[in-house]
Amino acid sequence: MQNPTGTPGDAEYSDVAWLLEELFRLSRRISPTSAYSLTVYSALASLSRHGDARLTELAAYEGVSQPTMTQAVGRLKRDGLVQQIPDPRDGRAVLISITEAGRAALAERRSTRGERVAGLLAQLDPADQQAIVAATGPLRKLAEAVPDRRTGAQGNQPTTPLKWERQ
Amino acid sequence: MQNPTGTPGDAEYSDVAWLLEELFRLSRRISPTSAYSLTVYSALASLSRHGDARLTELAAYEGVSQPTMTQAVGRLKRDGLVQQIPDPRDGRAVLISITEAGRAALAERRSTRGERVAGLLAQLDPADQQAIVAATGPLRKLAEAVPDRRTGAQGNQPTTPLKWERQ
DNA sequence: GGATATACATAGGACTTTGATATAAATGTC
DNA sequence: GACATTTATATCAAAGTCCTATGTATATCC
Fold it and tell me: What is the longest distance spanned by two Cα atoms in chain B?
């Protein structure tokens, strides 16, 4: 199950990539049908977790283009889940800020998802449950290790470091 | 880190649901930009893994509506990644079958994703790597435990059991 | 001040997704 | 066998998602 070096081998590595496909399917199947895509909720969750952010920063963090995030934020704003605040330090920029309604929507969704995941976990052996719980920290580190996808119109690379990324 | 019962508690359970959000973001960030959505690739991967399937079956498995899958398959067919074969046992049904070109496209994509995941994993401590590898099996079980989302036009529940689901 | 870079918005187009509905084939009832 | 019902898929309209290319305003650099 483990090669002589003590670290996982290539087979296990591609297993992890493949696992992500299945977890994507799982993620959608446990998500309540809603008005927003997984991406839009992901952006909202990021705002909740990391605080206000610039539009471009949020787009890079979520791995979508800046125009896509402009539209997503437009819908969230229309529905009152976020606000746009002009950045006092930079007249070009706007800060996106989650509202109370946004936090409530997020809590509602998380509650549903959390219950469903708990129901699924309860069906597994205790050993499997513990293996999953033991891996949540490492998997989160894995997710944080992925570099930004600087997307959007070609040469639009900002020089200011994104505050959300690992420093 | 573990309560007296030996099984994870509620806090750990909601951690898992939340982890899925981050892994979704990871999944998109490591995916090569392509013509198809994550869903379309997921459907193609399912065909590769489980064999031919009916349209409705595939839609339920992926958690999307039947019209969505009809369109997705239409594009995949247009691009030669799948074929549609009339079901010899049922004149109403069609079987979706992945083609060699479909398998090739899948392999290409998996290769890219696999390399990127490997690169990320290599940045973690060996202990974290091993925790992740140890959890792949349990997480796959978790993904398989999720019930179908029987979607599509309201009362369209098939009576025939879906052969892909855990019997 | 003028050139360049950056932040965001807008425009246009292809893809995604859904609910409602249509069509055709299978199944059950009499 | 005719009929109603169910099921599998297709079609349609509408809203959402996402991209590239481009425009506009502000910031920064010389």
Answer: 57
Contacts 24+ apart (CB under 8 A), A56-60: A56/A93, A56/A152, A56/A156, A56/A158, A57/A158, A57/A162, A57/A163, A57/A164, A58/A96, A59/A151, A59/A152, A60/A148, A60/A149, A60/A150, A60/A151, A60/A162
Residue B120 tokens read as 């990320």
Query: In this predicted structure, which of B9-13, B78-82, B130-134 has the lowest mean pLDDT?
Result: B9-13
Gap between the Cα atoms of B39 and B36, Å rounded: 8
Q: Which nucleotides of C are covered by protein (CB under 7 A)?
A: 5-12, 15-22, 24-27
Distances (CA, A) of B69 to A53, A145, B141: 36, 33, 25
pLDDT class of A162 with cuts at 50, 70, 90: low
Cβ atoms of residues B20 and A117 within 8 Å = yes
User: A155 pLDDT band (50/70/90 cuts)?
Assistant: very low
Higher-scoring residue by pLDDT: B7, A67 = A67
Residues of A in contact with B112 (CB under 8 A): none
CA dihedral over B66, B106, A151, B16, signed as positive or negative: positive
Residue A110: count other Cβ atoms within 10 Å of its Cβ.
17
The number of beta carbons lying within 10 Å of the beta carbon of residue B2 is 12
Written as one string, the DSSP assignment of A62-101 is HT--HHHHHHHHHHHHHTTSEEEEE-TT-TT-EEEEE-HH
Q: What nucleotide is nearest A157 when CA is compared to C1'? A: C6
- Torsion angles phi and psi, residue A23, rounded to 5: -70, -30
The verdict on a CB contact (< 8 Å) between B24 and A24 is: yes
pTM of the full predicted structure? 0.85
Confidence band for B34, pLDDT divided at 50, 70 and 90: confident
What is the average pLDDT across A66-80?
A: 96
Give the DSSP H/E element, type plus range, for residue A53.
Answer: strand A53-54
